[in-house]
What we know:
It is found in: Cell membrane. This protein is mainly α. The chain has two helices and no strands. It has one domain. α1 packs antiparallel against α2.
Amino acid sequence: QVLAYLLISSSSSATARVSDWIDNWGSDTFPNMANSSIIISFLAFVVFAINSLISAYNLFRRDL
């Protein structure tokens, strides 16, 4: 869960930085690559979240 939190916080800050990059230096290939990386990071966060839900389900459905 800590990794998922770090991933989503870094992705959100990268989104703001890409916007600043475009405002300061214009659009080139770097912002396109950065946007692709941000999308992949958000997808990885979704996978971490689903994995957390499955793990919690498996943990609490066991008979003690």
